[in-house]
Amino acid sequence: MRPQPSILQINKVLGSITKKRHYPTTISLWKRAQSCGFTPCSFTLNILINCYCHMGRLAFAFSILGRILKNGNQPDIVTLNTLMKGLCINNKVGEALDFYDLLMAKGFQLNQVSYGILINGLCKTGHVRPAIKLLQLMKRHIVKPDVVTYSTVIDGLCKDGLVNEARDLCAEMIKGGITPDIVTYSSLIHGLSSKSEWNEAIGLLNEIVLKDIKLDIFTFNILVDAFCKEGRITEAQAVFATMIKCGEKPNVVTYSSLIDGFCLIKNVDESMEVFNKMVKCGLKPSVVSYNILINGYCKMKRIDVAMNLFREMRCKNLVPDTVTYSSLIDGLCKSGRILSVQDLIYEMRDNGHPPNIVTYNILLDAFCKRQLLDEAIALYKQIDDQGIEPNLCTYSTLIDGLCKGGRLRIAQKIFQNLLINGYCLDVRMYTIMINGLCGEGLFDEAINLLSKMKENDCLPDSITYEILIRALLEKGENEKAKTLLHEMVARGILKR
């Protein structure tokens, strides 16, 4: 253009494109502008730093800071905050804190936003204690935290189960003249619900209403979901009714929570009614909605209804995921329809959802329960060949199946390999192996394994002791059985 536009107009273009998150385009356009003779101002440089940070190219972002300092200029607070945020969003919170220390040492004055960025970064990475320390340090530097900063820490505390500390911090915030907002209340309600402190959670909900704070769908969904997970459907429906009364329209997440709640109390027909109501309201069910219903019907061994829902799902162009297939495979296996499973396994792979360890554990359990031990061993080898890491459930299922199927030596070999490789075995795993040894009359080996179990800081439970005591009594080893009984009493497992 003649005359050429000012750098301010160039900045407007670059800023608009950056807001749309087209970061490489912003960089590319700036290079073109620069080649035409445009000189960046501090606003331009901040836009470029922001782009490089979001692209993960932190070295380029910091090189711009180096250029600012080399030209004898001082970076403004926006530049410093953008760099700190860039480190945090790239999972370099430790480096962000080091950068903060460097800036403080050089006498830079940071603001509310600076501390908010660091506190948010710490809380998101699960470091809530350092976040609290930084919050206190912020106050000492005469930077007043706002409701967002407090809410971030309160949310972090609630997610760590430290609800009492979160409430204390909320009280401190109110005492300091800062009013909690819907985000603060939502975090506290979620924390209280996860601790089953229902009266206090409902009390907070009522407080929100009394203070005339606009309730959002997120807050309502937290409560509906929490009540449903506890099987408290009546309370969940009451919150649902309050939600509608407050003019908030339930969404797919709300309905899915209710569907799940009815499934958890084994009332799948009521779940289906909620599902149909959701569809009538004009909402499109998600993959999660279908998964909940399919899993519910599978657990009730109503596999034909589950398969119909699966077909309906595909007709609506919803792509089943690993959870969908795993639920169906579990249902088919438990209904004795193992032959139908193979087709689903092939379909999973074709649709880009290869079986995961959960799926394989379901199949392994089915083979072991039907004493198809050759198939179970082959499947175990297949898991290993595919580079999938078996978990504790895999090993306990296989070892239990082998012990009950008379293949104790193979079970022992797998078990010993786990011990040699330092695998952290639980009480159930040891108990399975002890039961297997007792079943074959190898009582001394079973007693030795009990000792090994204790050496590895895995304390036997009542089931472990009962298996051994019963086996010893059957063998006539009454004194050894009595010793174990005394041990149970000493540990408080059995009362005198």
TrEMBL record:
Which keywords label this protein? Repeat
Q: Which GO annotations describe the biological process of this protein?
A: chloroplast-nucleus signaling pathway; mitochondria-nucleus signaling pathway
Per the UniProt entry, the signal peptide is none
Q: Which domain of life is it from?
A: Eukaryota
Instruction: Pinpoint the residue ranges of every PPR repeat in the record.
Output: 41-75, 76-110, 111-145, 146-180, 181-215, 216-250, 251-285, 286-320, 321-355, 356-390, 391-425, 426-460, 461-495
Q: Which GO terms describe its cellular component?
A: chloroplast
Q: Which family does it belong to?
A: Belongs to the PPR family. P subfamily.
Q: Which NCBIfam families does the protein's record reference?
A: PPR
Q: Could you tell me what this protein is called?
A: Pentatricopeptide repeat-containing protein
Q: What species is given as this protein's source?
A: Senna tora
